[in-house]
Write the C-alpha cells for this entry.
Amino acid sequence: MSNSIISNSVIKRLPRYYRFLGELKAAGMTRISSRELSERMGLTASQIRQDLNCFGGFGQQGYGYNIELLQSEIGKILGLDMKKSAILIGMGNLGKAVALHVNFESKGFRLTGVFDSKESLVGQVVCGLPIRSTANIDEFCRENKPEIAILCIPKTAAKGIADQLIKLGVKGFWNFSHYDIALNHPGVSVENVHFGDSLMTLSYRLNNEQD
Amino acid sequence: MSNSIISNSVIKRLPRYYRFLGELKAAGMTRISSRELSERMGLTASQIRQDLNCFGGFGQQGYGYNIELLQSEIGKILGLDMKKSAILIGMGNLGKAVALHVNFESKGFRLTGVFDSKESLVGQVVCGLPIRSTANIDEFCRENKPEIAILCIPKTAAKGIADQLIKLGVKGFWNFSHYDIALNHPGVSVENVHFGDSLMTLSYRLNNEQD
DNA sequence: TAGATTGTTAATCGATTAACAATC
DNA sequence: TAGATTGTTAATCGATTAACAATC
C-alpha cells in the first residue's frame, strides 16, 4: 500500500493531523469531512484528501472520516506504536529539559539511557534514569541497541559522538546540535531542531512585516 | 530592493547560510564560489545564486562571494542587528532551558522579562532577570513594549496569554505550545517549535527506511 | 585577453488546488 | 433515490535546476 515514496511535505503534516484528530476525539466528535477539517486546520480539503490517500482510503463517500479510526491509522503510519529505544547525550539545561518535558512514549519511543561527559553529573537521576558517563556509550549500545540518539551537545562534541554511534548501529538522530549529520552520513535518518535558525527566521519576519 | 515577496523556502535557508559563512570566516577563508559553497552545504550552486539574488547582487563575476561581506549582509537581511525586545512566558524546565541555552543577542533579540504563573517561582533570578508573575504582564508590556513573546506554557494557558499579548502590541511569537496562534491571528508573525511533531516525524522515517 | 563565475532567463520538476466521476 | 463526500485525475502554481550571456 504505502509503497510509493511519500513526499517530505506530506510527512511533516502528519503529526499535525494526528494532534487535531486527537483534540476532536477528546471533544467527543466521531466523524468529520475533509471540508470541515480543512476549515479547522487552515488547509484545503483537497490537500487533506490527497495527503490521506497517499496511505490508503480511510474515508467513506457521503460520510467523511471516522475520527478515532483515522487518528489511529495515522498513529500507525507514524510508527507511534513501536516504542523504539532512544538515548540522550548531553544533560545540560537543554538535555534535561528535553528528557523531562518530552513525552517519548506517546511519540513512538522509550528513553532508555542518558549520558553526559561531565563526571560531576554522572550518577544523578533524571526521569528515573541514572546519568551515565559518555565513556560507557559503547558498552551501553552493544547491550541495549538503541535505535536513535538525541544530541544535546555542542557541535564540537557532536561530530565525534555521532560518528561513533552510527558505527554502533544507531539508525537515527534527533539533533539539537549544529553538526550536520545528514551531510556526512546520507543513509541515516536525521531530524534537526535548530533553535537559533528558528529564532532568526522569526527575526526576519518581524523586520519584513507588510500587508 | 527586497520589495518582491520572498518565499518561505528561501527565508528558512538564510540562517543556515549565515551559520556556514560564519564557520568559513572563522576558518580564515575570505572568498567562496557558489559551486564550492554548494558542495559544502549539500545544495545546488543554482539554488544558492537564486536565493542570494532575491536580495541583491552580493557576488562578483569571475571571483565569487566575499565571505565576511556576504555573512554580514545576510545578518542584516535577517535583522540580527536590531535587538528586538523579547519576553518569555513559562519558566518550567523548557522555559528555563530556552532562557539559558539560547543566545538571543546574536539572533536579533534581547530577553527583557521572564514570567511564570507559579507564585513559588516568582522572584527567582534566571539569566539575570527576576521571574515575574504573569499577573503583571499588562503593566510590564505597557512599560517595555516587547516585540515578541516566547511561549513555553501548555496549550490551555497559551490561548489566553497569546490573545492578551496581541492586544498589548506584541507582534510575534516563538511558540513552543500547541496553541495555533497563526490560525486565530493571521496578522501576527509566528514561528512554531513543536518537539512532539519533530519527534514523530523521526519515528516515521525510522519505520520507513528503504534505499 | 582568457578563464572563471556571477546574475538571470528558460526549462523542469514537484506540490497544491480544482474538478468530477464513483459511491456510500 | 437524492445528497453528500470521497478518491482520483487533470490543471495550476511555485520552487528548483539548467543554461548561458554578461562581466569581472
About this structure: Residues 3-76 of chain B form a domain with the Arc Repressor Mutant, subunit A fold (CATH 1.10.10.10).
